[in-house]
Amino acid sequence: MLLLAAAFLVAFVLLLYMVSPLISPKPLALPGAHVVVTGGSSGIGKCIAIECYKQGAFITLVARNEAQEKLGPVDMLVNCAGMAVSGKFEDLEVSTFERLMSINYLGSVYPSRAVITTMKERRVGRIVFVSSQAGQLGLFGFTAYSASKFAIRGLAEALQMEVKPYNVYITVAYPPDTDTPGFAEENRTKPLETRLISETTSVCKPEQVAKQIVKDAIQGNFNSSLGSDGYMLSALTCGMAPVTSITEGLQQVVTMGLFRTIALFYLGSFDSIVRRCMMQREKSENADKTA
């Protein structure tokens, strides 16, 4: 009976692999394509622009509506402009929440609005939204930043449902901590708890992140993640997100329970870090009072 069940499962998986290419989007040919990258002067955005250029694309780093009229229709838009500010919720100014939502969220809405109509008319296009792993998991110190990055996913999911019939595909990238000037600036003001949690994972090179994002965008993958942690987070948070293939959906179903178990250990570790920092801070404050 077990052998029969195993044989059925293997046959089912093989069938999915055979069917998946039939429902997957046709890859976008980058040679000669017009790629617009916002936030392309440094960090991940710069590396994405370089990677697309290496593959033969024509690059525009900064563009408004007039740029599309002068340089031709946009084949792929990469919304990479953004910034991070960390701090305890009660210590952050309300203006900080407004600023991050304006830059990270609305900063992706405006360029996308500028190109989406033409993409639908031409029946071709890719739009990339660069979120963050902090857009999949809310962490200590990121009440303002995570909210703006979570918003990007909601936008992307809804937009993908609108434009899929027009052969336009959306990609949401969830890069981990990446060695960029923005990350270095962010580290200057990170709360201790946030820094210790961040140190539980390694820092990636922007070139590595850029290659993965470009690869996923070309293929029309909705999700773009990097490394084992990124894969696990994407499977855990897939929810009602679109899938590019039946195989991808099956993988998420099969791995969900295991990854949730692993995630509970991560969350317990993060909570432990926060508690230790709180106890150390209270101990130090009590010592100052008695001195």
Notes on the structure:
The chain has 291 residues and is of the alpha/beta class. It is built from ten helices and six strands. It has helices spanning 2-23, 43-54, 65-71, 94-122, 143-163, 181-187, 192-198, 206-219, 227-236, 246-290, and strands spanning 34-38, 58-60, 76-79, 125-130, 168-173, 223-224. Strands 2-1-3-4-5-6 form a six-stranded parallel β-sheet, with helices on both faces. Helix 2 (43-54) crosses helix 8 and helix 7 runs antiparallel to helix 10 (246-290).
Cα distance, first to last residue? 74 Å
Continuous helix count: 10
Poorly predicted parts: none
Looking across the biggest beta sheet, what order are the strands in?
2-1-3-4-5-6
Largest sheet: 6 strands, parallel
Overall geometry comes to: globular
What is the tally of beta strands? 6
What structural class is derived from the secondary structure elements?
Answer: alpha/beta
Q: What percent of the residues sit in helical stretches (DSSP H or I)?
A: 55-70%
Along the chain, the helix and strand elements come as HEHEHEHEHEHHHEHH
Report the C-alpha radius of gyration, rounded: 21 Å
Percent of residues in beta strands? Answer: 5-15%
Overall mean confidence score, pLDDT: 90
Helices and strands in order:
Layout: H1 2-23, E1 34-38, H2 43-54, E2 58-60, H3 65-71, E3 76-79, H4 94-122, E4 125-130, H5 143-163, E5 168-173, H6 181-187, H7 192-198, H8 206-219, E6 223-224, H9 227-236, H10 246-290
Parallel strand pairs: 1-2, 1-3, 3-4, 4-5, 5-6
Helix pairs in contact: 2-8, 4-5, 7-10, 9-10
